[in-house]
Amino acid sequence: MAEKIKKLTFWNVMFGLIVIVGVIATIRRFALGLGATTGLSDAVPWGMWIGFDVMSGVALAAGGFTISALVYIFNLKEFKPIVRPAILTAFLGYILVAVGLLFDLGRPWFIWHPIIFHNPHSVMLEVAWCVMLYLTVLALEFFPAFLERYRLTKAVKVIKIATPVLVIAGVLLSTLHQSSLGSLFLIVPHKLHPLWYSTRLPWLFYTSAIAIGFGMVIVESYLSSRAFGKSLERHIVIDLSRAMLVSLVFLAVLRVQDLIARDALHYMFQGTFEAQMFWIENALLIIIPVTLVAIRRIRHHPMGPYFAGLSAVMGLVMNRMNVAVTGMSAHTGYYWPSWEEIMITVFLVTLGFAAFAWAIRNLPVFGHTPWREVVYVNPLQKTPASEQSPALHPANAWLR
What we know:
The protein has helices at residues 2-7, 10-32, 34-37, 48-60, 63-72, 83-104, 113-116, 123-149, 153-161, 163-183, 201-228, 234-261, 273-294, 296-299, 304-324, 329-332, 339-362, 385-388, and strands at residues 230-232, 371-373. The chain has 18 helices and two strands. Helix 4 (48-60) runs antiparallel to helix 6 (83-104), helix 5 (63-72) packs across helix 10 and helix 6 runs antiparallel to helix 17 (339-362). By secondary structure, it is mainly alpha-helical. 68% of the residues lie in helices and 2% in strands. The protein has one domain. Strands 1-2 form a two-stranded antiparallel sheet.
């Protein structure tokens, strides 16, 4: 009994409370319906569950196809040890996207309809099929971790033979549906604010997803070092931050050129609510991370790439929420998510973290060569001893 009480940490208590409230919110949503439990209406059909859970979730899971493409298509083998963690994040992300979509659908038991009933004129059909197929590809790509756990070496060899084909299929499917999420808004040229509406939305969505793929891997590496005692070698983190820098600069050029081509640049300086949200979005998504990574001293600092990646991730989430909600508010009216919407989202994200933690503890997710154990001399200090000096602690001697 005493041992169980010792294991009852603050985070365990928080996890339990979130699960309890999340289950209550889930029961209310399916028992009472969307109208009684959300801030949605006929005028505001899409809110937090689409903007954050689905659109942001899909983009934040882009690290799976981005890192896989670098390793297996562009033959950048230095990134191979982070392929499996990236695929795990993408796999869990897409599962949560599918579950989040169930909450948003008025009749979720009909989610299987795109498999049988086809509307070839709808972008939603292509998105639905690509998400289903890519989720299958991710499951197959991550399946070797389960096989290795139970030492089924022959089955692992069979899956690894098919890995290049799976990677190519995953890249193609990701390219299609990452861009198609932007294509969904091409049908509302007079409802979406000019700061976000563009015929190049598919390209903007796809480019931003690639950049955030690198940022998510950086953030994931830092969180893994804090929670599980494993951290990427510094040179890999720096290379990822450089790749993110190039992608974000390309995205910035694309966005500015698009605004100029559409004569929409002046909307940025009108002082409206949309303009303010646009500036905040671009500060988080482009200005702050590009500035941090461009400065060599910050880029090589242990926390520099992490803050840059975190800022980019927050900016990406804000971009998707702006497109789905803020940019349409002038026509749809005021929207604020209900407590059920907020708690169900927090609930799903918490389950994702719990599933990731379980996989890290029970499956061979991390490689061994460039991943190193992080030993803290003082539990209160924030900088690992291995990043200060290997001589500070005998357990870090192997890093010399």
